[in-house]
TrEMBL record:
It comes from the Bacteria. This is ATP-dependent DNA helicase RecG. Plays a critical role in recombination and DNA repair. Helps process Holliday junction intermediates to mature products by catalyzing branch migration. Has replication fork regression activity, unwinds stalled or blocked replication forks to make a HJ that can be resolved. Has a DNA unwinding activity characteristic of a DNA helicase with 3'-5' polarity. GO terms for biological process: DNA recombination; DNA repair. It comes from Roseovarius indicus. Belongs to the helicase family. RecG subfamily.
Length: 696
């Protein structure tokens, strides 16, 4: 089924086929992603105006919208150009004025003849003690007043489109919405009390009161569920395709892994051992692994990743570990190298920085199989990068890889297993939305020896005390990170904020004690500053975000974050995780500029109260919303028009199990419900899923 079903044609016609939409309006609506009748159907009213008829404007809760029948009195034309044109009117209990600006008096005298009865509807406010209605929304003779709805839906608009136009277009789109076969499980639909699709659309566009606008109102909830269901079917089809894809059984001998365990100063946690066992079991099967490894900061993902890569090498193959940025790739290389060397394995890095002869040498070694583990950035995606025998690809997610890139990576090694790692935990609703096609392993224990970190909130005014605290810590041989905010994301200001702090700390703490790293430095200088801090030549490292620093310095036990209120929760949690890696008790000082906003305070107190990344992720989601949390543009996260990921996480979970069950019972979607589900996928424009069915 590689073409759109005819039943949906009317919903994918030109926008101009809708009543009241001309070429100009169509162009304007395109700015808010409305380009076809289906988009209008899925743009639901977000509010409503009560236009039920009243006897009088008296006692109204000004400013308030009122619909009332009046007798038209005298007209008062403006005294000066551009002044207000006023018409006195009288309802059952009081008199008030209708006010117009820039209106033609011949037109007003025609629609408001003195002595006639008319029904007016609009916002009434008090001006100099007198009630007035400026530019009524409706002026109709009493016999036509039935055209004014009791409850008028209010649509999201863009400049140049009125509520009237939008209302007309929506009405027109609803009239051409077809009756569609049912794709929801009948038992689920009955227990939730949901209407059919067509009725749900009609009712969602014709709310009777504010309660009908609630996301939990049956018609709206059903439409949200449809979006979740289509998304979960897409993920489910991708998952089924990966499972059907022949993989290769990769079974390790355990020899290299044993060498690494011998070299470790501690024993792995139960969670690490469990995750490694799950990964090894997946790799040993002859279908492709598609697993997500979620762990909190400092839960020891590196060890799990390395052991998985070693399984690939033990089986005679190669492994690749991808990172979103060059700095993170280098950090992985630094973390993996000592362990890889203990196992006697050749590890190399490939980034955009590799040019010419050096790059050619690495590519040749990779193709010959001389490089066993490769660490790299997106550069690994380039055409000329060939492996001799790629068995495992690990993607360090950082939220920048969508489903598409994961499939792309699998093509480098036609049957390579895929393991995705996330840097910080993801709330359940998001992981369902973004990784519903994957199996999940969770690391929720800290390795032994990780001491809790004391977190304190300190006002920016106590800067001198903080500097004194650092001076004493340095005297004891400890090291500290000092993070400055990116001011307004501007490169130049960013440099001065870290640069200024560096100068002041150098003046206070002495020459040669403080290092500096910022985004504008040439890579060599950056590396040199980090290396000096790692060796302990400098005691304080000032930087714009330590994520950039990315080096693991066990002796660093103090993290100062300046203007902490300007960072997101996930970022603060990630920064704090840079300390607490050594013997000394660690401290994180969150410096803020009072007064704190309510959200700023909630973020900082959450940090003070908990070190649990899973809890922090939930709070972050509540506060910011899904798109923000991942940065919608690069998230590969669906943009839902009706559904709300945070508020309706439970609905998403039901949709996932429903979609998986349907695909389990009817993998090719050829049964009656399967055929209906295909229509849903076309309706929701899940092209990727449609391609999977047509190819699959």
């Amino acid at each position: 089924m590689s073409t759109r079903p005819p039943i949906l044609f009317p919903l994918f016609a030109e926008l101009e086929t809708l009543e009241g939409v001309g070429p100009k309006t169509a162009k304007t609506l395109a700015a808010i992603d409305i380009t076809r009748p289906r988009d209008v159907l899925f743009t639901l009213p977000y509010s409503g105006i009560d236009r039920r008829r009243r006897e009088t404007v008296q006692g109204a809760n000004y400013p308030e919208t009122v619909t009332v029948e009046v007798t038209v009195g005298d007209h008062r034309a403006p005294q000066r150009r551009g002044g207000p044109y006023r018409v006195n009117v009288e309802d059952a209990a009081t008199s008030f004025q209708l006010v117009f600006f820039h209106a033609r008096d011949d037109y007003l005298r025609r629609i408001l003849p003195t002595g006639q009865r008319v029904v007016v509807s609009g916002k009434v406010e008090l001006f100099d003690g007198m009630a007035q209605m400026v530019h009524p929304d409706h002026i109709l003779p009493p016999n036509e007043a039935g055209d004014i709805p009791d409850f008028e839906p209010v649509y999201p608009l863009t400049a140049g489109v009125t509520q009237k136009t939008m209302g007309k277009a929506a009405h027109s789109a609803v009239t051409r919405a077809p009756e569609l076969p049912e794709w929801i499980d009948p038992a689920q639909k009955a227990s939730a009390g949901w209407p059919d699709w067509h009725e749900a659309i009609a009712r969602a566009h014709a709310p009777k009161d504010m309660a009908d606008l609630s996301p939990s109102d049956a018609p709206r909830e059903r439409l949200a569920y449809d979006e979740f269901m289509a998304h979960q079917l897409t993920l489910g089809l991708a998952r089924a395709k990966l499972r059907r894809t022949k993989g290769r059984a990769t079974v390790g001998t355990g020899k290299l892994q044993a060498k690494v365990l011998d070299a470790l100063p501690y024993t792995p946690t139960g969670a690490q051992t469990r995750a490694i066992a799950e990964i090894a079991a997946d790799m040993a099967q002859d279908r492709r692994m598609n697993r997500l490894l979620q762990g909190d900061v400092g839960a020891g993902k590196t060890l799990v990743a390395l052991k998985a890569l070693l399984i690939a090498v033990e089986a005679g193959g190669q492994g690749v570990m991808m990172a979103p940025t060059e700095i993170l790739a280098r950090q992985h290389l630094e973390g993996l190298t000592p362990l890889a060397e203990a196992a006697g394995v050749v590890i190399e890095i490939l980034t955009g920085r590799d040019k010419g002869a050096e790059r050619r040498r690495k590519l040749a070694a990779l193709k010959a199989g001389d490089i066993q583990i490769l660490v790299g950035t997106h550069a690994v995606f380039q055409k000329d990068v060939e492996f001799q025998d790629l068995r495992l690809a690990i993607v360090d997610e950082q939220h920048r890889f969508g489903v598409r890139q994961r499939l792309e990576l699998g093509r480098k090694g036609a049957q390579a297993d895929v393991l995705v790692m996330t840097a910080t935990p993801i709330p359940r609703s998001l992981s369902l939305a973004q990784y519903g096609d994957m199996d999940v392993s969770i690391l929720d224990e800290k390795p032994p020896g990780r001491k809790p970190i004391t977190t304190a909130l300190v006002s920016q005014g106590r800067m001198d005390e903080v500097v004194d605290y650092l001076r004493r810590a340095i005297a004891e041989g400890r090291q500290a990170y000092w993070v400055c905010p990116l001011v307004e994301e501007s490169e130049l200001i960013d440099l001065s904020s870290a640069g200024e702090r560096f100068k002041r700390l150098r003046a206070a703490l002495g020459e040669g004690v403080v290092g500096l790293v910022h985004g504008q430095m040439p890579p060599e200088e950056k590396d040199a500053a980090m290396a000096a801090f790692q060796r302990g030549d400098t005691s304080v490292l000032v930087s714009t975000t330590v994520i950039e620093v990315g080096v693991d310095v066990p002796n660093a036990s103090i993290m100062v974050i300046e203007r902490a209120e300007s960072f997101g929760l996930a970022q603060l949690h990630q920064l704090r995780g840079r300390v607490g890696r050594g013997e000394a008790a660690s401290t994180c000082l969150l410096m803020y500029q009072p007064p704190l906003s309510e959200t700023g305070e909630k973020r900082l107190t959450t940090m003070r109260e908990t070190e649990d990344g899973f809890r922090i992720a939930e709070v972050d989601l509540e506060m910011r919303g899904a798109g923000d949390l991942i940065g919608t543009a690069q998230s590969g996260l669906p943009r839902f028009r009706i559904a709300d990921l945070e508020g309706q996480a439970a609905l998403m979970a039901v949709a996932q199990s429903d979609a998986r069950k349907l695909l389990n019972d009817d993998p090719d979607l050829t049964g009656a419900r399967g055929q209906a589900a295909r229509i849903l996928l076309w309706l929701m424009e899940q092209d990727q899923a449609i391609r999977l069915i047509s190819v699959g």
